[in-house]
Amino acid sequence: MMKYHVLFLIILSCIVVSGFSRNLPITAFDEGYSHLFGDNNLMILNDGKSAHISLDKRTGAGFVSQDLYLHGYFSASIKLPADYTAGVVVAFYMSNGDMFEKNHDEIDFEFLGNIRGKDWRIQTNIYGNGSTNVGREERYGLWFDPSEDFHQYSILWTENLIIFYVDNVPIREIKRTKAMGGDFPSKPMSLIATIWDGSNWATNGGKYKVNYKYAPYTAKFSDFILHGCAIDPIELSSKCDDDAAESKTPSGITLDQRRKMDNFRKKQMQYSYCYDMTRYNVPPPECVIDSKEAERLRAFDPVRFGGSHHHHGKRHRRRSKSKLKEEDDVDVSFM
Ligand SMILES: *[C@@H]1O[C@H](CO)[C@@H](O)[C@H](O)[C@H]1NC(C)=O
């Protein structure tokens, strides 16, 4: 057990210091994952090196890690379906929603399809201990077409830090703050990948639905990295003492990476919950408001991101119990 922890600690430290995951072992599908739903809309190819999940009229599909993990580095290379993909949602995320109905944790990458000629967008979010009344969504464009080739999407999760990466560029960093309380994910979670019909919200507020004329929509996954403190679902916490691994985890992102992250966020971020005045009269406590960022987002949506006096009376908590809906989002015509 001890050996495992030391090894984990060393490897985790290396990841955090270098930001590169290329030395981490790739897991074959059958070693790390199992089928979740969607019968033969899940296909395992290349000796288990890749998995395809498809959405057609009958069903979406998904797969789930065999183990639960408490902290670690999790990654997959993903190629999204091309052309008309409005209403299609592909998700690569961690959750323990099946075990903790009322106080689950979640760390999400969600990919939102679009009409032909418009790019996919990514959304990130977290929930902790059932904090579903506080969505912490951010949404971004990408600097490439994610349906053209495989790109690596990764989640680093430690006791006090979550970092989302795209092709090893950190795009979002969430530090645990005291004020967040239980809202920071803290219980073991599974890795899950799904494709499903999000017609009622995914693209421009449900304006553009999934069109099954173009089905099947297939998302391709490969290069699975499941590198964390694995916990047997039956034995649960007994197998993993996480604080040994965390105490030496360095502060996270190198200077060079931080520069890249800032650059990415300046260019690509289209939505941030911290600036959404139609949702939060007072931003959640961890938000650090940057006036330049606020100004940039206001250009997308003057009402949502403040600055317009026109809708002040409407600043109530719309939909505070549900996930962010695209209809509350910037219109695609701004992009
Ligand atoms: C999680 O939520 C439950 C109530 O659902 C609460 O009793 C508990 O204290 C919370 N845990 C943390 C760490 O905030």
TrEMBL record:
Residues of the signal peptide: 1-21
Domain GH16: 10-221
InterPro entries (UniProt xref): Beta-glucanase-like, Beta-glucanase/XTH, ConA-like_dom_sf, XET_C, XTH
SUPFAM superfamilies from the UniProt entry: Concanavalin A-like lectins/glucanases
Pfam families attached to this UniProt entry: Glyco_hydro_16, XET_C
Basic residues bias: start-end ranges: 307-322
Residue runs in coiled coils: none
Region (Disordered): 303-335
Membrane found in the keyword field: no
Known role: Catalyzes xyloglucan endohydrolysis (XEH) and/or endotransglycosylation (XET). Cleaves and religates xyloglucan polymers, an essential constituent of the primary cell wall, and thereby participates in cell wall construction of growing tissues.
PANTHER family given in the database record: XYLOGLUCAN ENDOTRANSGLUCOSYLASE/HYDROLASE PROTEIN 8-RELATED
Name this polypeptide is given: Xyloglucan endotransglucosylase/hydrolase
